[in-house]
Design goal:
Elements: E1 2-8, H1 13-29, E2 31-37, H2 40-43, H3 71-81, H4 85-100, H5 108-118, H6 122-130, H7 132-149, E3 156-158, E4 164-166, H8 176-191
Parallel strand pairs: 1-2
Antiparallel strand pairs: 1-3, 3-4
Helix pairs in contact: 1-4, 1-8, 3-4, 3-6, 3-7, 4-5
Length: 207
């Protein structure tokens, strides 16, 4: 099976919709999904103004646990990853749903509920989460990899061909046929010989 890497941030509704869509099409196309992390809080932190993404002055992985809104979710995601790629994906989907369907905060209670919904071993998850230094190092490596790739938003997909792009899905799409149609359109744009780099709709604002 071929692998697609997805860079995500649990704060981002577009990342949630993109992962849900990829989750639907992956079995149809024989793809496996590898989840990695990109922090919108780090990318847009005031201390970073004017600096290139490869050289942030404010590092999420070094912040106190009760500080940034996303840090606990990222560390929890890395704890879930210790139970395997499939378990990590289930956890990520459930945590996204808790945040963007149910309006929950990304707190310890939400992490525990996501673990239960995803069918992970809670005792193992908590033990892995408590190995906080290791989880922070893993998060730092993900964020560094995202910077080296030039990721600037979520979701960013890295296809088996090596092509990578950020794509915003405005609606949640889980119907298999429509999801496959959208995925094939997205990947066709990336593979097209015209080398299309940006498609952006204008936003109409009321006076």
């Amino acid at each position: 099976m071929q692998s697609v890497t997805v860079y995500l941030d649990y704060l981002c509704p577009f990342a949630w919709r993109g992962l849900e869509l990829a989750h639907v099409v992956a079995p149809q196309l024989g793809l496996t999904l590898k989840l990695r992390h990109y922090s919108l809080e780090q990318a847009h932190h005031p201390d970073k103004a004017g600096l290139p993404p490869q050289a942030p002055s404010w590092h999420l992985a070094q912040q106190p646990l009760e500080g940034p809104r996303s840090l606990r979710a990222f560390l929890g995601s890395h704890a879930a990853r210790q139970q395997g790629q499939a378990a990590h994906l289930r956890f990520a989907l459930e945590l996204f749903r808790l945040r963007h369907q149910d309006g929950r905060e990304l707190d310890e209670e939400a992490l525990v509920e996501a673990v239960g919904r995803a069918g992970l071993d809670l005792e193992r998850f908590m033990a892995d989460f408590e190995e906080e230094e290791s989880r922070r190092l893993e998060l730092a490596r993900d964020l560094e990899a995202a910077a080296q790739l030039g990721v600037f938003g979520t979701p960013t997909f890295v296809l088996p061909s090596g092509d990578a792009a950020y794509f915003r899905f405005t609606q949640l799409t889980t119907e298999p046929e429509l999801a496959l149609e959208l995925w094939e359109l997205f990947t066709a744009v990336l593979h097209n010989g015209a080398h299309i780099e940006t498609i952006r709709r204008p936003r109409i604002t009321s006076a």
